[in-house]
Every structure is written in structure tokens, then in C-alpha cells.
Amino acid sequence: MAGRGDARLKPPTTRALLHAKYATCSIYLILEPVVRSSLWTSCSKWAGRGRRTIKRPGSIFYLDLRSVDAAHRPVGILGESVGIWKLPLPRPAGLMALKKALIVLAHSEKTSFNYALKEAAVEALKKKGWDVTVSDLYALNFNPLISKKDITGGLKDPDNFKYPAEAVQAYKEGRLSSDIVAEQKKLADANLVIFQFPLQWFGLPAILKGWFERVFTGEFAYSYSAMYDKGPFKNKKAVLSITTGGAGSMFSLLGVHGDMNVVLWPIQSGILYFCGFQVLEPQLIYGIGHTPADERLQILDRWKKRLENIWEEKPLSFAPSSYFDLNFQSGFLMKKEVQEEQKNKQVGLSVGHHLGKSIPTDNQIKTKK
């Protein structure tokens, strides 16, 4: 157990606790010699029993995790008995640890529907107990251009600058620029990542594309020895929330723009799945510029409803890395036994691994039933 005075855990306000409506309890471990505040407990065992003053180090009191902001997060979760425990604290079965969500917003206007979708997501997730962080790329004035400035200290080869190699070395040595490090920390902490953006030229907005290029450095987000379903982010989930100017019919099999599944493949497979993410069904909002106000409100409500159980959703289907010989000698090609197994099947594995056959219907839009 940490020694006295090694940490200071600022308690939430009495007001926050009084407004907590949940019986699920978390705990704070008091490391200060004296806690002067008299604190309310939201735990069902203590509800209605008034204030309890904690005065000795090692004491434990209960809080509703959802009433405590990220800066005052407890160090563990316990049951309903009070006592002195050693770290790490046990967590009773059935209690989910606090989940963290990161929302990456790539739209410049606060009056936009993308901003409204972001606000709806923050509201819905916080209501369900998520700790939510937002990276508003325009508000951050995020620089989307890769350059030597991304690396602090000396370069490995300043006369023949190779960004990927230099960035990997800088990542290993803790020499990446502070804005990249800040975004990487948000990603590392997150269980769920939502990318909120308008589709621009059939792809990512430039500022978001640059965010991926600068933040997803080698060894942090991927490596040839750990990619796709074995990637660094394999325990995280990601979802694209996209608005389009064109109607949904324009992105259909017979539509003038072509199949939306093909549009999504480079992002969902080439970036997210490549780095290990479990990619959830995209939230697609077509023709938003021609959508009446009342329908927009319904879209926001459906988005919030979906987010209530987003963590329980199953991911989209991709070809697992085990289907391939992952080495340079074999060229990272599909294994012969897998090719043989797929030979007589009527459709391909996915949009990118179609094997010269028909693409599975809505492979990048709907989960496999």
C-alpha cells in the first residue's frame, strides 16, 4: 500500500453525490492523514444515513463511479464492506470497471450536425457511466502535416529523412512532439473510439487523415509482427460516425457513387482493423444537408439509443491474420490451405479479399449474422 501522503484524492462535491441515483458503488482509498471533508456516500448500504467523516489513512468510503469526474477517479472497486485493503483492490463479479471513450471530431463548425452528433454521444455515454474524452481537432488547431518537427532531439539520418523510421525511433525513445504524445495517451487510455466526421472526397477530412498519419506511429499502433486482429489495439473497439452530402441511394450498388462498402474499406480495414481495432458497424447519416429538422432530432435519438449498449455490439467481419503467411519470404500471401478452402464458396471473404468473386453483402456496414 502506498505510504501516507503519497497521493491526494480530491473528493467529489456533496451535491454530486446527493444527485447520484445508482446503487453500483466504487471506493476511494484515503492516503492522507486527515480528510477534512464530511462526505456523503451513494452506496445503497449507507443511503440515508447522513455524513461519515473519514480521519485515518487507509480508510475506504464508497462513491457512485458515475458521479465522479475523470480527475478524481477511484483506485479500485469493492463490495459493501468497509475496511483496510492492500492494492490492487478486488472487484466483485458482475461489476464492470469504468469504460473510457475517446471521440475524435473532425468538423470546424459548432453549428454543424457533426458537432450535434458528438454532443449526443457525450451525453449518452456519460449517462451510462462512461468516462468521455473529446479530441476536437479544429478546436485543438491540430497540425495534420508530418514533418521533422514531429521529432524532438537529433535525427537518425538528417540528410535522408525517412519519416516512418524516424517516428518509430522517436516513439521508442520518448522524443515525439507533445501534441502527438497527448493524442497517443488518449488512445492508449480509451476502450472505445468514435470518429465523427463528414465524408469528404470519398474519404477522411484532411485534418483527420493527418491525425492518423502523425498519431498512429509504428510500434505504437502497428508493426509487421503484430497487425490486424493481433494489432496493439485488439482489445479496443472503434466506430465511424459519418455524414454525407449525397443521398443513400447514391452510395448503393446501382448508385452513381458506387457501393459504400468499397468507400469504407480503406478506413475500416486499412487503418482501424490493421491496428487491431474491433470495428463496429458504422453510423451512416446520408444526405444530411437535405434532412428536415424533425428527422435530424430522430437521428440524434437513434444514435443515443445505440450508444447505450455500444460495448455489447459484435464487430464487423474481416479475414483473420491467421489466414496468411505473415513473413517477407512468403510475401504475406494467403495460405494455400485457406485458398483451397475458399475455392468453392460463392462469395469472397470481404470487400478487399473478394478472391475474384462477389463481395459479401454489406460486409463493411453490417455485422455477420
TrEMBL record:
Its main location: cytoplasm. It comes from the Eukaryota. InterPro entries: Flavodoxin_fold, Flavoprotein-like_sf, NAD(P)H_dehydrogenase_qn. Its EC number is 1.6.5.2. Transmembrane segments: none annotated. Keywords: Cytoplasm, FAD, Flavoprotein, Isopeptide bond, NAD, NADP, Oxidoreductase, Phosphoprotein, Ubl conjugation. Residues 99-307 form the Flavodoxin-like fold domain. It catalyses: ubiquinone-10 + NADH + H(+) = ubiquinol-10 + NAD(+); menadione + NADH + H(+) = menadiol + NAD(+); a quinone + NADH + H(+) = a quinol + NAD(+); a quinone + NADPH + H(+) = a quinol + NADP(+). It is an enzyme of class 1 (oxidoreductase). Homodimer. Interacts with PDLIM4 isoform 2; this interaction stabilizes PDLIM4 isoform 2 in response to oxidative stress and protects it from ubiquitin-independent degradation by the core 20S proteasome. Interacts with TP73 (via SAM domain); this interaction is NADH-dependent, stabilizes TP73 in response to oxidative stress and protects it from ubiquitin-independent degradation by the 20S proteasome. Interacts with TP53; this interaction is NADH-dependent, stabilizes TP53 in response to oxidative stress and protects it from ubiquitin-independent degradation by the 20S proteasome. Belongs to the NAD(P)H dehydrogenase (quinone) family. This is NAD(P)H dehydrogenase [quinone] 1. It comes from Phascolarctos cinereus (Koala). The gene is NQO1.
